Amino acid sequence: MGPMKLVISGPVGAGKTTFVQTLSETEVVATEAEASEDIGKKYTTVAFDFGTINLDGQELLLYGTPGQDRFDFMWDVLCEGALGLTLLVAGDKPEDFPHARNILEFITSRNPVPFVVGVTRQDLPKVWTPEDVASYFDLPSEQVCGLNATDNDSSRKVLIRLLELQLSEQPAAAAGA
Amino acid sequence: MHVAIYGDFADHAFPDVAKVLQRHTGTLFLQSALGGRSVELHLHRGELRALFVDGFPVREALRVQDVLRQLMNSAVGTYEFEAMAPHELTAHFALPLTQVLRSLVQDAHIDQSQLPHESTRFVTVPDAETHVPSLPVTLQGAWRSVAPLLSRGGSATELAQAAFISLDEARLMLFRLRAAGMVTPYRAAGVVNSAGQPTPQFESQVVAAEPEKAGPVRRFLNALRRLTGGA
């Protein structure tokens, strides 16, 4: 079997590039440019971030999509055939929740990919919890996780959750087919 | 228990905030939500127990409804929720907030940025028909005309064409129907929503399982678990 593909999406500044860099075993190809407007940081992703993980002889390709709406054409293309989708949202930026929700619903209503939502910045004192973000997104709490995108273990646990969802859906789909 | 629920009504519609607070007990503080006046809502797991405007209690049912209507229509400014124990709340009444807001949802003003993408598909929830009598009359009429389309799943683009309304009107209608608990986003992979209801899947949308992926995925998962110490 060829390499598997994971798509990481979410609003600007949610931690997508950091998440890919933390997980990737190879140097991440990060296609960035200087931001033309104030987004709270100097650089932003303008194509996609690419990284790889290789475990037990199986390769997983990581694609981090840009967060701006003008790149929505890319989400469909990248999600086709993907193993799953991880949507990241910063827990201390509730102003981004509507956009993140719209991204998630756009992608998942068109692509049958398993997904999890990762809520970053959980180390901050004033941050939305994953459970409350789940309520806002109309999702079961099991599908929304807290995440420290700079931490290996934390990032891997989000990936574990996604793969568990992937495997739990396969028997159901097979039974219904 | 750590609870941090805060934001601005420029970004979050009041129905969405109320939905998040369904499982919490405490006070929602709105600094200047009504033309500069502050509002406090004392909430206990989906029930409105007391309401204060500029520190003065609002007890009469019609007045309470009027304040809620104003919040749905024109809440502005920041909000912050403070978790409390039930005995710390003021209790003047016990109104089921979701039910009350459903009857007011037609008046909700929603910023464009919060409306769903025109191509995002929505589908009716299994028990939608039981909520119809509590909808505003105008929304009941809209529901009857779009329910057949949404029972199969439909986007704002499809709704606009079928109902001969503008795309913006269709997006707003979907937002209101969602806020009223009538529709939920369609998930092509098929998951349950936060209310525990499975979102319907349709034969034509279901992608057949790929059993040949299960082995490599499981192997990868096991390797990841070993890396994280089996957590």
From TrEMBL, chain A:
InterPro entries: Gliding_Motility_GTPase, Gpn, P-loop_NTPase. This is GTPase. Transmembrane segments: none annotated. Belongs to the GPN-loop GTPase family. The keyword Iron does not apply. It holds the Pfam family ATP_bind_1. Keywords: GTP-binding, Hydrolase, Nucleotide-binding. Gene3D superfamilies: P-loop containing nucleotide triphosphate hydrolases.
TrEMBL record, chain B:
This is DUF4388 domain-containing protein. It comes from Deinococcus piscis.
